[in-house]
Amino acid sequence: MKKWSSILANLAVSYISIVLVIVLLLCSAFYVYFSGAYKEELRNRNQLVLANAAQTIETSVLQRVKQIYLDLSLNKTADVRAFADASFASSPSKALELQEVLKSKVTGNSDIIHAVHLYSPGQNRMISSLYGLVFNVDQGNSYPYFADWVGGMRSNKQNSLWTPVRLVPQDIFSSLSGGKGEALLTYAHGYPYQASGANSELIIAIDVKESAINAILADKLSLSYRGTFVLDAYGNPINDHGQEASAMSAAYSASIFKTILAKEKAGSFNDSINGVQQFVSYQAFNSVDWKLYSAVPSHLFYQKSIFVQKLVLGIGIAAIAIGILLSAIFARATYRPIKRLAGKIRGLSGHMTDPSGNEFRLIDSAFSRLNDKVSSLEETLQANSLAIRHNVVLNLLNNSYTREKLAEELQFLSIDREYPSYCCMIVHSGEALAKLDFRNLQYMMYGIINQLEALSLPDARIIAQELPDKKIAVLLFSERNEDELLEHLSRYVLAAGQQHVQMQLQLSWGSPVSDIMDVHQSYKEAVTLMKYGYFYPESSILKDIGLLSRESSIEEIPQPLLIRFREKLHARQLPETLSAVEQLVSHMREGHYSADYCHYIMANTVFVFSECLKSVRYQPPAGGALDYYHQYEKKHDIFVFRDWLVEAITTYMEQMEKRNNDRSTSSVEAAKQYILGNLSQDLSLDAVAAKAFISPKYLSKLFKEETGVTYTEYVTSSRMERAKELIESNTMTIEQVAGEVGYATVAYFIKKFKEAYGCTPGSYLRHSALEA
C-alpha cells in the first residue's frame, strides 16, 4: 500500500471515530431527553385525567348530594324541623307526607342515591324513604346499618360527615343472612345548617350508591381503575371494589400513607407494591377532605414510551450509516488539499522529491523553512515596535483588551509587574501644534513624548503616546496614590512645554484606579475634563472632578437671553448685542451646563448671526467669505471665540451703518419713528408710506434691505417689544396692553405674543416676576 493511502486511511478512521462518538452522545442525549419528556407528558396527561375524574365525582355526585340536603332543609311544603317535636309521633299523616317528600328526592336522583333518612337525636327516631318511621333507632337488628353515621354525628364537632362504603341488605330488620344488598356510603349533615353534629336538632342522611362513583372511575380511568381508591383524610377507602378491597388497600397501605401525608393537592411518585413497580398518582378533592388515589404498574403506564425509544435507536443507526458515508466523502475531500499542498511545495522547491514520500514530511520541511522566514519577520516587528506600542496604549485606553490579551501585550510596554495605582493625563497644546506641518508636528510630538518618558520619578513609571486628535496621553503607573506626585509631574510638563518647545500647554487628570484594566475610566475622565478646558483656557491644570457632573446636566441657558441676542442683532443695536454675547459667555463659564450643550449654543449663535447676514445680503469687506461656522470650528477656546464674534458683529454693524447712510435712510427712519410713536394706530403699509412721503412698494423694499425683515414683521416685532415692556412694568392688564399696542382682540394679541416669545403674556409676566 502506498504511503499516500495511509494518510487517507487515517483521515477516514478519524472521521468515522468522530461520527461514532457524536452519534452515540446525541443518541444518549436524545434518549434521555425525549424518553424523559414523553414520560413527563404521560404523567401530566394522567394527572389531567385524574383531576377530571375527581372533578366529575365532585359535580356529578358530591355536589348533587349536598344540593339534595339543601332542598330538604329548605323545603316549605314539608317542614322537616317539625319531626323533632314530640307531638310529631301522634300525627301519622305528617309522617306519610314527609316520607313522600323523601321518596320523591330518591326517585328524582335514583342514579346516585339509594335512600334518604331523617333522624331526630332528641326523640331517637328516624323516618326513612325506604324504611318508613323507625322508633328507638339505636335498638334492634337494624341499628348496625345506621350506627356509622348516627354514632359519628352524635360525637362530631363538625356539621357533616361522609362514611366509608358498607354493604346494606334489602331487609335490615331481619336477622337472616344472605339476600341481595347495596354498597352504600352515607352523607350526614346536621340541621340547622351551621349546627355541629352533637348539637343538631335533626340529622339528614343520604345513602349514596358506591356504583355511581365506581362508574365514573371506570369511565375516566379505564387503565388504572382496579388500583384506584377514594381515600378519606385518614387513608380509609371511601369506595369499595368488592371482596378484594381490604386486601388491595392493605397491600397499598405504604403508598396510601405517603399520599395522605403529601401536602400538595396533586402529585405522583413511583413505588414498589408487592414487589411490582407501580406508578402512583393522586388528586385532592375541592369540597371534601378526600384524595383520589391511583396505582398502575409502571410497565403498563410507560409502555407508550417504548415507541419513542425504538425511534431514537432507529435514528441513531441511520445517523451512523450516513455518518460513515459522509466520513468517506470528507476524508477524500480533506486529502485533496493536502495533496495539492504537497504538489505546490514540490513545485516551489525547484527539484523533484521522492513521489512515494510521505506528504506530511514534505509539509514539515516546508514549515521549517517558513519558520526561518517568521524569525526574519519578528526582527521586522521589533523594528516597528514603536507603532505596535502606540496601538497597545490606544487599545488599553479604549478598553479593547480582555485581561488575558492585555497580559500578552504588556510586554510591548516593558511592563513586567503590577502597580497599586494607575492614572491618565491628557496634554493639549491648543493651536500651537495645529499650525505646524506634518514633519514638524511629528518631530515636536516625539520630542515631548521622549522628555516625558525620560523623566525619573521615584516608584513610578511613565508611558506617553500621541492621540489621533494631536493630544498626548500620559499613563502614570505608581507605587502609591499621592496628589503630590501628580502635582510634581504636572508642573514639570508645563515647565518643559514652556522652556523647550515654547508652548502654553493645558493638562487634565483622571481619577487614579487600582487595576490596569480600569485605566480607561481615568482616561475617559481626563478627556471629559479636557473638553471644559475650552471654557477655562486660563486653567493650566484641569483636575476638578466636579466638572464631570456637568456632563449629565440638563440645565439650559435662559431663552430670554438667546432671544435678546437675536433681537438686538436684527435691530443692529451694537452695545446691547455685544452685551448679550458677553452674557452668553459668562453663562457658559459659570453655569452648570454640559460642554456639548455649550458648543451647541455657540454654533446656534453663529448660525443666527450668519442667517442675519444672509437676510440683508451682507458682503464682508475685502471680499471675505461668509463661512462663519467654519471659522468658529477653528477657535480653540471661548475667549478667542468671543473676541472673534465681537469683532465680526462690530464690523457687520459698522458696514451696515455705512450702507444705510448711503441710501435713503431718512425715509425708513421716519417710518420707524412714526411706527414706534403710533403703535396703537393704523400702521398699514399704505398709511405709513403716506407719512414718509414714499410709495408703499418702495418703503417695503427699503425695510427689507435695511432691517433684514419685512415691513409687517417689523411692525409686529415693534408691537411685541412694546408689549413686553408694558408687561414687565406690571402696571396694566393684558387687555389694556393689547389695546395699547394696536390689537383690537385680546385672543389675537396672545397668539402673536406666543409666536414671538414662545409663551403667553401671562406666563411671561410670571417668569419675569420670578427672575426679579
Automatic annotation (TrEMBL):
GO terms for molecular function: DNA-binding transcription factor activity; sequence-specific DNA binding. PROSITE patterns: HTH_ARAC_FAMILY_2 (PS01124). It holds the Pfam family HTH_18. Keywords: DNA-binding, Membrane, Transcription, Transcription regulation, Transmembrane, Transmembrane helix. The chain crosses the membrane at residues 12-34, 311-331. InterPro entries: Homeodomain-like_sf (IPR009057), HTH_AraC (IPR018060). Residues 669-767 form the HTH araC/xylS-type domain. The keyword Nucleus does not apply. This is HTH araC/xylS-type domain-containing protein.
